């Protein structure tokens, strides 16, 4: 049960990318900001400060985390497109989740960040050639190379992984 609450859409696995998958993933990312906004728009402050699962982040922290990740994702795509195999900068998301802008701030600013970064990201992704999706960056935290096609798949998974956290919490708590 805990695995389902922690990884509601399963753990990330990359099995390649077809042209159809690329287009589908980009389309899903394009729709994402309206989906997350729609899920949290009517939540009260008390609901926003409720963990999505026991021991998990609050709904508020999840929304702010998605904004943090979206900024990093856009920058990682841009770095890999403009530099030869750059080393990206990981961020300590558990520590970031404890900062006041994540724990206490209203979610409106992060929803705007999500809308803006996903709009820019999907515009960029649509313009990329198949060859550009082969470009890579080095992820020092994981100690591995990551191609942009793999990172596109991960970015889509990550977004919908957190969307499922929010959806599941709303269903479980009858909101």
In a nutshell, what does this entry contain?
With 175 residues, this protein is mainly α. The chain has helices at residues 2-6, 19-40, 45-48, 59-82, 93-96, 100-103, 108-127, 148-172, and strands at residues 136-139, 144-147. Strands 1-2 form a two-stranded antiparallel sheet.
What would you note in describing this structure?
By secondary structure, the protein is mainly alpha-helical. It has one domain (19-172): dinb family like domain (Four Helix Bundle (Hemerythrin (Met), subunit A)), CATH 1.20.120. Helices cover 62% and strands 5% of the residues. The protein has eight helices and two strands. It has helices spanning 2-6, 19-40, 45-48, 59-82, 93-96, 100-103, 108-127, 148-172; strands at residues 136-139, 144-147. Strands 1-2 form a two-stranded antiparallel sheet. Helix 2 (19-40) packs antiparallel against helix 7 and helix 4 (59-82) runs parallel beside helix 7. The chain starts with a helix and ends with a helix. The relative contact order is 0.21. The mean pLDDT is 96.
